[in-house]
User: What shape does this take?
Amino acid sequence: MMKKIKSFVSFLRKEKIESCLMSVGPDIVLQYFRNNKSKDKLHKVNSCTKSITSCLIGMAGRT
Assistant: This one.
């Protein structure tokens, strides 16, 4: 599992992602920040809510 997480962090760095939080249940599996400034910075999310909602609706439609 650690190898996959390290590979994912490499991908985040390559794609210049500012931050990422991954959790499984109540446990935080990964908390990534590009740098210390990113940790306290507010980020624009624009259409993220619409994208996540559409993914969840699509997943619910499969069952």
